[in-house]
Amino acid sequence: MLERKMGAIELGLRCPENVNGISVDPQPDWSFDNLLLELDSIDKKLSSNLDFLSPFTKTQTRDVRASKDNKSSTRGFVMRVSDDEISYVDFDSDDEADNKPMVSGRRFACDDLYMSDESEDDIDSGTQCYLMDKVGLTEVALTELTHELQLSVSEEVRSKISSLETELTNENERFASLTTKIDKYRDLRQDRERKFDLQYRRTIAEALDNHLTTVQRDHEHISQIEERKIRDDAAREEAKRKEKAIQEEKLRQERIRVEEEARLKAEMTERAKAAAIEAEKKAAEEAAAKHASETSNTAHNAVEDPKGTLGSSSSTVVKNGNMIKASENALELEKRRRQLYEEFCAKKKSANQDYTRHGSTIGRQIRTISAAIENVKIRTEELVKLINSPGCPQSLSILLFAEKIVSNCTNQKSSNAIFATCYVIVLVTSKFPVAMDILIAELNRVCIYTVPKHIRYSQEAFSTKDAYNKAIGYKEEDGKIESIEDYIEKLSCYMKLYGALVQTNVGGFQNLHGLAQGWAWLARFLNYLPANLYTAVALDSFLEMAGYRLYHVYKNQFEKLLRIIQHDFLNALKVGGSQSSKLNKVKVSLQNYVGSKQYTKEPEGLQLRSHLESNDFY
């Protein structure tokens, strides 16, 4: 009987375990390993006595007796297996094993038979045959158990081998699938890398092409710059040669001009003397005919002249019944310039040709003057060329130049343009000194306050107010006298031009009517001219342009004159009547100019972009 307990198989005999005090199984707690070892040792003992190895060959029978009455029995043993150990044995019919608590084993009864491994042919041939001896139930059970164990182990090995083969097949398939995926991924990556490489090469090629194009363009630009420099250098050299030739020609013409001017001045001196004698004769005849006596006015205190340019004598001149208030020196200078101006006008009238086009060309050059050194230089050179033009007499060109300068100043509203025009005047008159006298004479003709002088209104001398207005400079157009607003605006433009001219200083050139004449004008103005709307406008416009330079040259003396203006001239202005608003405006302007010391600030446009020197022009 076979039982399984706690991982071990227990074999039990059908006979009693203890007979007469003798135990059938001396070690009832054998394990399966111990049982195998015991079987092996038994088998070795049995095999050592056999001539050939065979698990079922015996040399003698083994009697196993087990009965209650101690009689021999040939029955085999019965193997019992517990239900708990069914899972360790692989039976063909598991359902039957589950339904039966115990399974009966086969009974082996080998009485007189002997088993042999030899075939029947060997037996027939007369070879000695050895049959198995009778074995007991224990040996049969052990043999069956060993056989079943071998089968179960073989089946387990086969199942493991099958599972391993299945796993190996699956692993191979998975490996093949992964290999295919890896190959596809590698091909995809290689294709992508080829595309990236191609794109990168294209980008590099485009960048290189752009760089080479830029380098080529830069080289071409540099080459063009170098060529332009070479051409400019050549042009400058050529211009220098031409300028040198022109300079030599100008020097020659200058010598001729100086000689001509010296001759003209000598002639003018003789004519002036003759005219003075004739004027004295006419004055004596007029005085005797009218039996008029000269009256003298109370003399004003003359302002001190630090440069010694002011005259020491003054008078009030009565001429044709018009009361003219001015300094004798100023009137004498005006007379001399007017005579020269009239001579030039007489030459213009005697000319048989029309020089209107030539005058328009001069006027166009004057109108294009701007506050830039290069522009002033160009305009000066063009005007000098026009005055020296052989197509027109020089005296007529100078007269046209003076007239266009004076007429154009009424169109110049900004101080920049006025100062730039004065730069051109100084440069041109430095080449033609007589042009300065003609220009001042033209200014004195259109504006008596540039002398300075004032004509006092008198009903005896002037039949109407319009006649008086004409005498002081009002223009008549279409039989109508211009308005007081237009006259004041025009008066301001003339005085700004005169004030800007006297203070203009160009390095390397002499201003023939410079700051000394401006100082003399201011002193004569304050000494002899009354305070009214016209004189106030004239004074305000003059100080606006020339006050800054007068202050920097005369300092304290100029401030004394300003105090006289503030206390005497402004207090003498009578605000009232129809002209009260205009007079009040110019009075406030003068008060602000003196009170806020605007004369210490440089007027706008006084300086061009840089200082002008003589070598910048000629």
Q: How would you sum up this structure, described in words?
A:
This protein is mainly α and 618 residues long. It is built from 16 helices and nine strands. The chain has helices at residues 32-47, 94-99, 120-124, 137-290, 328-350, 356-367, 373-387, 394-409, 415-431, 434-446, 465-472, 484-503, 515-528, 533-554, 556-572, 580-595, and strands at 2-5, 8-11, 18-19, 22-23, 315-319, 322-326, 453-456, 476-477, 480-481. Strands 5-6-7 form a three-stranded antiparallel beta sheet. Strands 1-2 form a two-stranded antiparallel ribbon. The chain has a two-stranded antiparallel sheet with strand order 3-4. A hairpin with a 2-residue loop joins strand 8 and strand 9. The longest helix is centred in the middle third of the chain and has 154 residues, at 137-290. It is rod-shaped and about 200 Å long. The protein starts with a strand and ends in a 23-residue tail after the last helix.
